[in-house]
Amino acid sequence: MTQEQKIDNFGQWALDNFRKDLPEKWKRMPDEKQIQDTIDSIKRRNIEVHFVNTKEEALEKIKEAIPNKVSVMTGSSTTLYQIGFMQYYLLGDNEWDCLGSEIYGEQNLEKRIELQRKADTADYFIASVNAIAETGQLVATDASGSRVSAYPYAAKNVIIVAGVQKITKNLEEAMNRIREYVFPLEDERARKAYGNPSVIGKWVIIEQERMDHRIKLILVNEELGF
Q1: What is the DSSP letter of 144?
Q2: Cα(119)–Cα(133) distance, rounded to whole angstroms?
Q3: Beta-strand (E) ranges in 39-195?
Q4: pTM of the full structure
Q5: Architecture of the domain defined by 3-12+24-220
Q6: pLDDT digits (tens, 9 = 90+) for 121-162
Q7: Closest CA to 42 of 224, 205, 217, 177
Q8: How far apart are CA 141 and CA 139, in angstroms?
């Protein structure tokens, strides 16, 4: 299987195989007021917000935000596949140092883990979150921590892309969204992709960012990811 086929197949599986028996409330599209209130709350926490209407606009925003000749790493994210970023990252005509290319191609587990640890300190780390509280907190979870470990401090810059359906009323509901909706989907994906169940192992809650311009959220007015 070629690299192109692997990318396309992953993205297609994510789009086609979401479970239909989970609470619909966790994927409802918010109204304009909810979106604006959320944006205002996030900005007060020193996180930049760029609101766009389409996944195509989201991809262009990422391209604009990352200069040439810098190291770039990604956290595992269905959203990044859906907006076309992973195709551009691994196969596109960019001038970045794409750290993921070496990591994904490494067959030795110990070497791959070591490369992943080093990649946490990339100049730019691109990923998503599992929930966004209307009160401004960004929430992400992971089984091992490899996807979320760069968010708090290690990466020099963090760009997060998320669909507006991930907005919840507050932090408590954001965490409930993950337990009731996100985790069952991720568990099913992990069983199909790796043959093993998943767990909620590590939580990252971005409550406040002290470094100006370090974290950017690209909020997309579409349903993306889960």
Answers
A1: S
A2: 28
A3: 48-52, 71-74, 97-98, 124-127, 131-133, 138-142, 157-163, 167-168
A4: 0.92
A5: 3-Layer(aba) Sandwich (3.40)
A6: 999 999 999 999 999 999 999 999 988 999 999 999 999 999
A7: 217
A8: 7
